[in-house]
Amino acid sequence: MANPVRAAKATDERKNTVALREAQEADRVEPRADAVSFDPRQGLVLINLRGGWVFGFPPEQVDGLENATPTQIANIRLSPSADGIHWDDLDVDVSLTGLMARALHLQEWAPRIMGQIRSEAKARAARKNGLKGGRPRNPSSPGSRKTGATHG
């Protein structure tokens, strides 16, 4: 008979392993900051990103900061995971990914360069390819065998 405590512990360990792997992947691909500050002279919140990049934005672009004083804006901190910034006095949180996506209008132009836009030309090409039998098989796909092996 299986030990339910041992089984629960093994399940928890697997969940922790998966969560750790997901966090490491997010840390690798998503923006993370080393430091954040407010430069009142420029009127910009400056985020020093890992890898040496600096991202700046005017605080009035963030909901909840439109009427904040420079002193309130300067009281800023990084989230523990360094993927967001927070103003305690104003109860405002912003994710770096969301902030950068909004600033760069990624939702509008990124799909075009990543091939995710549907167009009549793409649909026509797909139909034409389908009439020819679709995409050619990949020689290393399952079900196909390489020949040429010699047996002695």
What does this structure look like?
The chain has a domain at 33-104: NE0471 N-terminal domain-like (2-Layer Sandwich), CATH 3.30.2020.40. Helices cover 39% and strands 18% of the residues. Residues 146-152 have low confidence and may be disordered. It has a three-stranded antiparallel beta sheet with strand order 1-2-3. Strands 4-5-6 form a three-stranded antiparallel beta sheet. It is of the alpha+beta class and 152 residues long. A hairpin with a 5-residue loop joins strand 4 and strand 5.
What are the defining features of this structure?
152 residues, alpha+beta, NE0471 N-terminal domain-like, 3-stranded antiparallel β-sheet, 5 helices, 18% strand, flat, disordered C terminus
Tell me the layout of helices and strands:
Layout: H1 4-29, E1 33-39, E2 44-49, E3 54-57, H2 70-74, E4 77-78, E5 84-87, E6 92-95, H3 96-103, H4 106-113, H5 120-131
Antiparallel strand pairs: 1-2, 2-3, 4-5, 5-6
Summarize the structure.
The protein is an alpha+beta fold and 152 residues long.
- Briefly note the CATH topology name of the domain at 33-104: NE0471 N-terminal domain-like
Mean of all residue-level pLDDT scores: 80
Terminal-residue CA separation: 51 Å
User: Could you give me the name of the CATH homologous superfamily of the domain at 33-104?
Assistant: Uncharacterised protein PF10387, DUF2442
H/E element sequence: HEEEHEEEHHH
